[in-house]
Specification:
single chain, 271 residues, alpha/beta, six-stranded parallel β-sheet, two-stranded antiparallel ribbon
């Protein structure tokens, strides 16, 4: 699959995860979904950031629909194929490789193999201004405990965005022998931050950086994922919309309306 001249990695989830188990060089992995491509369509700086990844993996069924629309299938025809012909679609375009699944599996793998993880969360909130920030501050204060409860044998270094410069983080990665860096600070910011950090690492540094947004929140049950049956039907987006209609409606609009539009809108390749 290819959108806006960003090539999405096409393989099985198993093969890609195996590739990440024992890296031999520094590697950047971004997990774009339709919403990210909508943002990158009107933000050329973000588009250039995505192109700097070693791997962009497909995170969202809408990418399948968009790919088929680029092959001149109607939107509803493509949607029906995605829903009813899941295996055939995945065989043709590659399996979905979601940030939430990678986060879960890498955390488990790292705990079993004594590999170290660095997690970068949003700005630390010290003086909350509203109820949302109070809740976020309480979560931030308990993150280490939550991680320890779920992964008692995992070595996790926790940083908050802005606490250290990209160069200082790169030095920490080398000093501590960090194998995986998870950036959870939101689209564009997390990818840009990882690019900056990894620019200070030597090429042979065997560290993988992954932009995963809210995936750690799902892992620690700070946000609730859709039931497994709903995910199996590829209807997680609908579940999230029903649970948080005000928060999710704009994102669903981007994924269902805006992304199909840009998928079939010819534009010149940026130079």
């Amino acid at each position: 699959m290819n959108f806006l001249w960003v090539q999405l990695h096409s393989s099985s989830y198993f093969d890609f995860f195996h590739l990440l188990k024992n890296p031999v060089k520094k590697t950047l992995v971004f997990t774009p979904n339709p919403e990210i491509f909508v943002r990158a369509y009107s933000d050329s700086a973000f588009l250039e950031i995505l192109k700097q990844a070693d791997y962009n993996t497909p995170d969202g069924n809408g990418l399948y629909v968009g790919s088929m629309m680029q092959e001149w299938l109607w939107f509803f025809h493509a949607g029906l194929k995605v829903f009813f012909l899941k295996k055939q679609v995945a065989q043709k375009y590659g399996e979905l490789i979601k940030g939430s699944d990678l986060t879960r599996d890498i955390f488990s793998y790292a705990e079993q193999t004594d590999k170290k993880i660095l997690m970068i969360d949003n700005y630390r909130i010290e003086a909350p201004k509203n109820s949302f920030e109070v809740k976020k501050m309480n979560i931030q204060n308990s993150l280490q405990t939550l991680l320890k409860n779920q992964f008692p044998n995992l070595s996790v270094h926790l940083l908050f965005y802005g606490e250290k410069s990209p160069q200082e983080i790169a030095e920490l990665i080398q000093k501590e022998g960090i194998s995986y860096v998870f950036s959870c600070i939101g689209m564009k910011t997390q990818e840009q931050h990882l690019v900056e950090i990894f620019s200070h690492l030597p090429g042979q540094q065997a560290t993988i950086g992954i932009g995963v947004w809210a995936s750690v929140d799902f892992l620690l049950w700070l946000q609730t994922r859709a039931p497994s049956g709903v995910r199996a039907l590829w209807l997680e987006w609908l579940y999230r919309l029903m649970m948080e209609p005000r928060k999710r409606s704009h994102r669903i609009w981007d994924a269902v309306i805006e992304f199909p539009r840009i998928a079939v809108t010819p534009i010149k390749e940026p130079r």
